[in-house]
TrEMBL record:
Annotated GO MF terms: hydrolase activity
Domain Beta-lactamase-related span(s) in chain numbering: 14-351
Name of this protein: Beta-lactamase-related domain-containing protein
Tree of life domain: Bacteria
Keyword Hydrolase: yes
Keywords, alphabetical: Hydrolase
Organism: Lacimicrobium alkaliphilum
Amino acid sequence: MEDHAGTEENDLYTGASLLIAHQGRVLYQRAFGYARAFTLQEDGRLVRLAKPVPMSQDAVFDLASVTKVAATTVSVMHLVSEQKLALDARLGALIPEFAQTDKADITVQQLLTHRSGLWQWQPTWLYLQNQENIVDYIAALPLRYAPGERRAYSDLGFMLLGKIIEKVGGMPLDDFVKQHIYHPLAMKDTGYRPGPQLKQRIVATSHGNPFEQKMVATGKPYPLAQPLPEPPFTAYRDYTLVGEANDGNAWYGLGGVAGHAGLFSTVGDLAVLGQTLLNGGGYGDYRLTDSDTLQTFLQTPYDNNQALGFWKNTDNTGLSYWHPGFTGTQFLIQPENELIIILLTNRQHKGLDPDSGRYPNLTPIWQELVSLVTKAVVRKEH
């Protein structure tokens, strides 16, 4: 991991934090590179900082889509365990705005497994007068596919799960996760919209939202469901993001608190959450979920690689439940091997590649890391 960290052209990220835990014990924890190394000038150029900020083991990262499991999935799991929400509950019954739409019969389980038929992504912020009417906006959108027809990974589906948690839980999403998950688990560095007490430890991500602006301009990889509104959106950020959700829908559309993105955390806090799941749903005196509900969430009712919320991989070393995030984050547990692997990076911080227009691809090194660690653990056990 260290070989890929730095500020040079071939480096994959400026910095990273890695934690590996096995059987309830941290085997390896280390930070590499820099938490902040570049700043965006007024003329749009990226300039290296004279004194880059080193990465620390307690660095706080924007998790991006790891939010889907570390906030939303475990919140739904908790509500199901408490018998306050059913997986077969229908969207139209949970959120009144959907009652008379073609989306009324979409179930919570279909939302969790990306089989809702909703669009994968849309720039919601372009069409909103205020953050309150994002539900109306999604309700009015045409379906991308028939509900249940196929798996199509959907940010919009997890935005709605966030709204369902608020409705059933009776409080804003950020308050719910703090009260029911992070505070009981002593995950003190985890939450939405991190406060000033964490500012010195927060890792920088992108410089504005150039990738999403390109998605809007090109309609790739997801076509726009509606024509662009007039006048055009002019409130894009033009500075280096530190402590603000990188995700445009989370930040512009939902004020930084969303079911699909926006959560901040550390490798240490995420390891506690991972261990809670490996323990069958409990940690210390706190029980997030009962073991039966947890096992239900680890099933794959429709697609072999998609559990409820979690992605699932199977190979000769066992089952992995995991989720990536666009900012360069990865969270993985292996129940059979009692293993946790968490890799958090700031792959966006060097900016978009001038040739490909993309951020670095971390999939090969992540797959290699998981394979090496898992084989070493399995070999040690035998």
